[in-house]
Write a structure and sequence with these properties.
The chain has 250 residues and is mainly beta. Helix content is 0%, strand content 69%. It has one domain: Porin (Beta Barrel). It has strands spanning 34-47, 51-65, 68-81, 86-101, 104-115, 120-133, 140-155, 163-179, 182-193, 196-213, 216-227, 237-249.
């Protein structure tokens, strides 16, 4: 059933060619209540089934009030495959955090996506679990999250039946601030199926952000992902290299 994801249709879900969304990217770390967020425009060179160029944009909005944090991320991408036609893909992610301890928060999240190149007709999921802040330094931050999620996946390979499974979803994220104008962020996700740990997905994403002026920055991101059981005809491993401009606001 797709009813559990109906609310996301209001947000016109778009992009991400990565099969696991990095909800940590562009997350705004702030102690101030109210709205904040970021928007980016990136160019990318990728490889999965084909070599292709991509143009993508990301919009990240979050609202914080005391111990509560609501985060919405929506990505859009156009892909030029082998110099022929453009294809698109989409993803929308909504997350809620309740921080009941200075270093522990409980998260609830939902996500929907599709990707024509990777033959993902529809993938929707719901999940929950704790998020731990492992450090207290302002020069570097480490976070660890471990969740349980329900996933429904429909592939367009004409062979794989509709999948309905529970998966574990764990991530380790860290941010480094070597200077006032440079930020280094890396996040790795591991998502095995609970009924078969040999069926797993892994994604690692690393970003370098350099402040330019005012609220603008230059961003370069490298993503590697591995899916043990992708759609028929899709390679297990893929990569993505993007560079572009980020605008942030508080």
């Amino acid at each position: 059933m797709k009813i559990f994801i109906l609310a996301f249709l209001l947000f016109s879900p778009f992009f991400l060619s990565a099969q696991i969304l990095n909800a940590e990217s562009l997350r705004k770390v702030t102690d101030t209540s109210g709205f904040s967020g970021a928007a980016s425009l990136d160019f990318s060179l990728k490889r999965d089934v084909y070599d292709y160029l991509g143009l993508s944009s990301t919009i990240h909005i979050q609202y914080k009030m005391n111990k509560h944090l609501v985060l919405l991320k929506n990505d859009v991408e156009l892909q030029n495959i082998e110099g022929n036609k453009f294809e698109n893909a989409g993803i929308t992610h909504l997350r809620y955090n309740y921080r009941f301890h200075p270093r522990i928060a409980w998260e609830f999240f939902a996500q929907t996506q599709y990707n024509k190149v990777s033959k993902i007709e529809f993938r929707g999921l719901l999940g929950t679990g704790p998020r731990f802040k492992l450090t207290t330094s302002e020069k570097y931050k480490f976070y660890f999250g471990t969740h349980i999620m329900y996933e429904q996946e429909e592939l367009s390979d004409g062979i794989t039946p509709i999948q309905r499974d529970f998966r574990s979803s764990s991530y380790l994220s860290f941010s480094l601030y070597p200077t006032k104008t440079v930020t280094f962020v890396s996040t790795s996700y591991f998502q095995p199926k609970l009924s078969n740990f040999g069926d797993y997905r892994f994604t690692s994403q690393t970003s370098l952000v350099i402040d330019l002026f005012s609220n603008f920055a230059f961003n370069t991101t490298y993503t590697f992902r591995y899916d043990e059981t992708p759609a028929v005809g899709i390679p297990n491993s893929q990569y993505n290299l993007e560079s572009g401009i980020v605008y942030s606001f508080d």
